[in-house]
Hints:
- By secondary structure, the chain is of the alpha/beta class.
- It is built from 12 helices and 13 strands.
- The protein has a 6-stranded mixed sheet, sandwiched between helices. The protein has a 5-stranded mixed sheet with strand order 4-3-5-13-6.
Amino acid sequence: xxxxxxxxxxxxxxxxxxxxxxxxxxxxxxxxxxxxxxxxxxxxxxxxxxxxxxxxxxxxxxxxxxxxxxxxxxxxxxxxxxxxxxxxxxxxxxxxxxxxxxxxxxxxxxxxxxxxxxxxxxxxxxxxxxxxxxxxxxxxxxxxxxxxxxxxxxxxxxxxxxxxxxxxxxxxxxxxxxxxxxxxxxxxxxxxxxxxxxxxxxxxxxxxxxxxxxxxxxxxxxxxxxxxxxxxxxxxxxxxxxxxxxxxxxxxxxxxxxxxxxxxxxxxxxxxxxxxxxxxxxxxxxxxxxxxxxxxxxxxxxxxxxxxxxxxxxxxxxxxxxxxxxxxxxxxxxxxxxxxxxxxxxxxxxxxxxxxxxxxxxxxxxxxxxx
Length: 371
C-alpha cells in the first residue's frame, strides 16, 4: 500500500521532490522506493513504469505506468472506503456536516449526547457543507449524517424523489421560495409576484444551490440567458448587503424561511428590504425540504447505542418537541405544517455559532435554509 501511495503521489505531483513534500518524507526515500518499483514492476510487465527527465522536470509515465497509477488510485480509494466503513461500524469517530443555517439545530442535538460521546471516547468531527454537496458527501461516506436543505417536488416529496434513493430523511420543514427586494412600492407593489414575472425583473441570484436549481425547473437549463440577472452571488448575506446598499435596484430569490426572517427584522444586513410572496404559475411546483439526512440501511441505524444513531435520535426528539410547541389551531396563510411554527419563541438569528436559544423552535431555525 505504501508503494502504491508513493507511485500515485509521483504521478499526481510530477517529481519525486514534490511527492516527498506531499507525503511528508525525504526525497531520497521516495526516489529509492520509486526506483525499486520501476525496476521490479518494469521487469514483470516488460516495460518500465516511467522515464526520468532533466532535473526539476516532470517524470514521463509510460502506458504501463499510467495503467498502474489508475490501479493504485482505485485500490487506495476502495481501501479508504473500507476503512471509513470500519470506522463507522466501530463508532470511534462520528463525522457530521451542516449548512450554516442548520448548525444551531445540530449543535442543540449534539449537546444532548455530548456526555455519552465523551464517556465512550468518540471523536466528533464537524464540517461546514454547501447545499450542492449535501447528499454527495453523505453517499461518498465522507460524512455520517448531514443537516441542511434540498430542493424537491411539491407533489412527490422525499418518498418519490430519486435523489433521496438510499437516504433516510428526517423532515423539519417544507416551504416554497420568496422574493426580497429594495424596490419602492411604487415600482413593485406589496403583493404576491408570479414566477412568470421573474423573467422580466432584475434579479440577484446565487451562483449555485437551491435557487438556480429552482430557476432551471421553471425556465429551463438556459435560464441565465432568458432572464435579467443583475448580479450573481456566492452567499445570501452578500446579496442582502448588496441590495441594502442601494447600488442595484433589484430583487433576490430566497427560501421562504429567509424571507420571513427579513420581514421580521431578524437579519441586520437586510434592514430596509421587503419580502414578497411568490406565486408558482409556471412549471412543476417545487419545495425546499429542510431536515437531517443519513444513509439508509446501514448497520448503525439498527443499533440505538451507536453514536450516529444516538445523534439521529436526539435530532428526532428535538424535532418532535418543536412540533408539540406549535399551536394546534389553523395555520396562518394556509401554509399548514410546512409554514413557520407560529408558537416559536426566543432569539433566532442565522449565525454560525450558538445564537438560537433553547426556546426557539428547531423547525423554525431550520427554515433559514441557505441559497
